[in-house]
Each structure stands twice: as C-alpha cells, then as structure tokens.
Specification:
The chain is mainly alpha-helical. Helix content is 60%, strand content 11%. It contains 6 helices and 3 strands. The protein has helices spanning 8-20, 25-33, 40-52, 73-88, 93-103, 108-123, and strands spanning 23-24, 56-61, 64-69. Strands 1-3-2 form a 3-stranded antiparallel sheet.
C-alpha cells in the first residue's frame, strides 16, 4: 500500500470529508474555521492538490462542487502508521509504544484501555498484515 502524505491542513480537510462523507469547499472552510482561521481560497487550492494526489474527487451538483474522499480513513491510518513504524522505529512496535508512553501524557484510563488491548491481543495473536 502506498503512503499518501498530507500536509497539516490537507489532513484537516480529509478529516472533515471522512467525518461527513462529502462536503463543499465552503462547508470545509466553515468546519476548519471552528478551530482555526483559514481562507476559503486556501481550502480551494488545497482541494485541487488533493484531487491531483487522487485523495479526493468531486461531483457537480448544480453550480456547486461536492468533494468526497477517495482514500478511506482506516487505510490512511494503516499506511501512515506502517510508514512511521518502519522508517522511524525500524519496525519495532515495542519502541514505538515505549516512546509514546515516555513522551506523551497518558491518562490512567488510557493505560487501563491499553492493558485490555494488550491482554486481548496476547490471547488472540494475529498474523501481520501485509
């Protein structure tokens, strides 16, 4: 699976599209503006770039373009995680998890959930995808 890389704002656009299944450039701009300022023209430019990457496409509804993702969020996460794991942590899941636990604030609830995942995984080991 090829890794599609997104810039920070491109990823924000993709997250809006993944959440809503599709949206106009104006709707995307409005959603992003809820958390940080962005110009509508910037969103339009980035959408063209995402179309060039084959990450999004659009359909025409009247005079409006509605954009929709061509890449599924789960596929992107799998690909990006695998890329990070192999390039930065040399394929070591242990090194990645250790780094996260040492460098990030992990709540006791998150730790409890992680323990459950580890225990479940230990009981049902699966083969690596790929």
């Amino acid at each position: 699976m090829t890794v599609t890389q997104f810039g920070r704002v491109q990823l924000l656009i993709m997250q809006v599209l993944w959440e809503h299944g599709g949206a106009t450039a104006r709707e995307i701009t409005d959603r992003i503006n809820e958390s940080e300022p962005i110009a509508h023209s910037t969103v339009q430019t980035l959408l063209r770039g995402l179309e060039e990457k084959k990450a999004v496409d659009h359909r025409i509804e009247g005079r409006t373009f509605t954009f929709f993702p061509l890449i599924q969020e789960a596929d992107f996460k799998q690909s990006a995680t695998q890329d990070l794991l192999s390039r930065v942590f040399r394929g070591s899941v242990e090194a990645l998890v250790a780094h996260l636990l040492q460098s990030e604030d992990v709540s006791s609830e998150e730790l409890a959930d992680l323990r459950k995942l580890i225990n479940r995984s230990a009981k049902n080991p699966t083969k690596k995808k790929g």
